[in-house]
């Protein structure tokens, strides 16, 4: 397999094999989570053959990079393939960046999303029935109420014995 | 390398290596069953990969089946990952 430079892209990250009509992308695992790779790959599987691998290091330990191979489905010739491979690699990289960013936003807002969804589902279930209210447990200790807000009007303003 | 072409008794055999952290084993099995009518398959495992060797009557056909099988396994893995 001969590795060739893809115009405008560094050889250590992107290399083409014109004989096979394929391009390899080396991607840092820390920057591109697997979920983002799945997202980008799914967009491209109707346009080209996609293979994802995680090559190990020379000493046998697990690697920290993904290798994505994109192969053209219908090879037309070395010249046309070089341009097509460059476009394919560039578009895949852009899509991957977009997927990684969306994944990052989702992770950061996961707690908020879950809370809003839970509230929406609870709201859609409608108000509690009388049976539901009857089942509520009121035996627990009351909240701290230093300002007496939770006190009933009668408790708060009841006449003291001396006033009678 | 995920896909390799190996010489075996003067016949080319395509070997696909699906990394276990990326591809679900069930998805690879499903893909092999799906394309079972189009080529001869041999499955084995190594510590990190599901390994599929396939042989078809012509090299072009073999390359095409290998590509489609890889896409099918990846697509099935992605579709089913929510259920795992």
Describe this structure in words.
The complex is a heterodimer of chains A (164) and B (84). Chain A is α+β, with helices and mostly antiparallel strands and 164 residues long. Chain A has a domain at 4-111: Gyrase A, domain 2, CATH 3.30.1360. Chain A has helices at 34-44, 78-108, 110-124, 130-135, 153-157; strands at residues 4-5, 14-17, 22-28, 48-53, 65-72. Chain A has a 5-stranded antiparallel beta sheet with strand order 1-2-3-5-4, covered by helices on one side. In chain A, helix 1 packs across helix 2 (78-108). The longest helix of chain A is centred in the middle third of the chain and has 31 residues, at 78-108. Chain B has 84 residues and is an alpha+beta fold. Chain B has a single domain (3-83), classed as 2-Layer Sandwich (Gyrase A, domain 2). Chain B contains 2 helices and 4 strands. A 4-stranded antiparallel beta sheet of chain B has the order 1-2-4-3, with helices on one face. The longest helix of chain B has 22 residues, at 59-80. Chain B is globular, with a radius of gyration of 12 Å. The interface between A and B is medium-sized, with 20 and 21 residues.
CATH architecture title of the domain at 4-111 in chain A: 2-Layer Sandwich
When the domains of chain B are counted, the total is 1
Strand content of chain B: 25-35%
The CATH topology of the domain at 4-111 in chain A corresponds to: Gyrase A, domain 2
Helix content of chain B: 25-40%
Give the N-terminus to C-terminus distance of chain A in angstroms: 103 Å
Number of strands of chain A: 5
Shape assignment of chain A: rod-shaped
Order of helices and strands of chain A: EEEHEEHHHH
């Amino acid at each position: 397999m001969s590795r060739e430079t893809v115009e405008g892209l560094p050889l250590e990250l992107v290399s083409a094999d014109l004989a096979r009509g394929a391009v390899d992308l080396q991607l840092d695992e820390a920057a591109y989570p697997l979920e983002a790779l799945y997202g980008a790959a799914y967009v491209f599987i109707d346009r080209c053959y996609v293979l994802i691998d995680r090559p190990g290091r020379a000493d046998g330990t697990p690697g920290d990079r993904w290798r994505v191979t994109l192969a053209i489905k219908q090879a037309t010739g070395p010249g046309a393939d070089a341009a097509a491979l460059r476009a394919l690699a560039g578009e895949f990289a852009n899509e991957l960046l977009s997927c990684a960013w969306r994944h990052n936003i989702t992770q950061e807002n996961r707690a908020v999303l879950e809370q809003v969804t839970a509230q929406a589902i609870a709201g859609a279930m409608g108000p509690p029935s009388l049976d539901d209210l009857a089942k509520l447990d009121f035996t627990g200790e009351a909240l701290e109420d230093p300002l007496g807000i939770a006190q009933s009007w009668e408790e708060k303003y009841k006449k003291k014995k001396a006033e009678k | 390398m995920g896909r390799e072409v190996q010489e075996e008794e003067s016949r080319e055999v395509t070997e696909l290596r699906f990394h276990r952290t990326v591809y679900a084993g069930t998805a690879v099995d499903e893909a092999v069953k799906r394309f079972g009518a189009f080529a001869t398959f041999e499955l084995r495992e190594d510590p990190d990969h599901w390994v599929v060797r396939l042989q078809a009557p012509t090299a072009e056909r073999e390359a095409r089946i290998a590509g489609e099988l890889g896409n099918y396994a990846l697509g099935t893995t992605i579709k089913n990952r929510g259920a795992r």
